[in-house]
Design goal:
The protein is an alpha/beta fold and 355 residues long. The protein has one domain: 3-Layer(aba) Sandwich (Arginase, Chain A), CATH 3.40.800. It is built from 12 helices and 8 strands. It has an 8-stranded parallel β-sheet with strand order 2-1-3-8-7-4-5-6, sandwiched between helices. Helix 10 runs parallel beside helix 11. The protein is globular. The chain starts with 5 loop residues before the first helix and ends in a 10-residue tail after the last helix. The chain binds manganese (II) ion. The site of manganese (II) ion has 7 residues, from loops.
């Protein structure tokens, strides 16, 4: 073997570019526009916009297409405390993700006007008041016409989101619910709304339609608690069935059952196997793997989602950050899903970091 010739070296040197001179014009245009408004290309240091994926912080949904909101709540958790630290951890891990979806090639910030609303502000310390606080925020965002992406917090936060959105849209939504648990348990000592009961309560309050609800990834020690799912006509697809029948089969079922009326997407990260996801309130073994969950999110495009959430990330149980890292990647998949859905049915604006 000999060294490369000068001619060969010239060929490769002609391909050398500056770090952010991208071949795709759309990508270059995005970085040029966003960087001029304070979006950092190097995400390791100080960020001018420290929101989810560096979205601009704005406390008002009017004019926005998608508002991401943190709900730092764990008072409704039956399991381990700590999910209240989820939103801030996901913001931090979100530095590693976006702005381009590597499967679709889409840039949510170019497709839509995306904001980070910040976290729901609490007006008292008790669960009922805090659920009302979440409800008020999502009612107001829903009334302003934007889609919402909630970051929990545990699954009780979804109750506040669905209550607000259901009232704003005057609708009972279909649901894609990915979770180890159906969360349809009965009241416990008179306590009705907690992170193990919210989908029963969402039906009983008229926020969701059980016959257009699909629960995917179900397994484990609490299976005996979910009779309401079966009685009310929800479709329950276990984690074993996902492995045995495949994601394509599950997606066919899910798309048909949810249909084209308005729908909501709820991802409890404990749907993922506990070997990937120990940083959660109720870890469960024998669960889904990260690629299956990503395929499920990618595969429901075309449905009429108006909101989504990701819940139960628990940084207190995630000492090496591997759960938060994965959760942030899935949160970006959910943002991408909502951006694609928004574009399909609405006129959208690009994200502006500075008004
Ligand atoms: Mn769960």
């Amino acid at each position: 073997m000999a060294r490369m010739t000068e001619e060969q070296l010239q060929k490769y040197r002609a391909m050398d570019r500056e770090a952010f001179e991208f071949a795709q014009p759309g990508v270059s245009a995005f970085f040029e526009r966003a960087a001029a408004q304070g979006y950092s290309l190097d995400t390791t240091g100080f960020l001018q916009h420290p929101g989810f994926f560096q979205a601009p912080h704005r406390r008002d949904g009017s004019g926005a297409d998608i508002a991401m909101v943190g709900s730092p709540l764990d008072l409704g958790a039956i399991g381990l405390a700590g999910a209240r630290h989820g939103p801030q951890a996901i913001r931090e891990w979100s530095r590693n993700y976006g702005p381009i979806n590597d499967t679709t090639g889409h840039i949510p910030f170019d497709q839509c006007s995306v904001i980070d609303y910040g976290d729901v502000e609490w007006s008292a310390t008790d669960l009922q008041t805090r659920l009302e606080d979440i409800y008020q925020v999502f009612l107001s965002l829903g009334q302003s016409g934007c889609f919402t992406l909630n970051c929990g917090g545990e699954h009780t936060t979804t109750f506040g989101c669905l209550k607000g959105l259901s009232e704003a849209h005057d609708d009972s939504f279909g649901v894609i619910h990915i979770d180890a648990h159906c969360d349809t348990m009965a009241s416990w000592g008179g306590d009705r709304v907690n992170d193990g009961s919210i989908f029963r309560q969402a039906v009983l309050h008229g926020f969701i339609d059980p016959e257009r609800t699909v629960q995917i990834g179900i397994r484990g020690r609490s299976n005996f608690l979910w009779e309401f799912s079966h009685d009310s006509g929800m479709t329950v697809i276990t984690a074993d069935e996902v492995f045995e029948k495949g994601v394509a089969y599950v997606l066919d079922q899910a798309r048909e059952i949810v249909g084209q009326d308005k729908a909501y997407f709820s991802l409890d990260v404990d749907a993922l196997d506990s070997s990937y996801m120990m940083g959660t309130t109720g870890p469960e073994p024998f669960g889904l793997n990260p690629r299956q969950v990503r395929e499920l999110i990618l595969g429901v495009r075309g449905l009429n989602f108006i909101g989504a959430d990701m819940v139960e990330t628990n940084p207190n149980r995630d000492p090496d950050g591997r759960s938060g890292h994965l959760a942030a990647a899935l949160f970006f998949e959910l943002l991408s899903l909502l951006a694609d859905c928004r574009r399909e049915r609405h006129d959208c604006q690009q994200t502006q970091w500075q008004l």
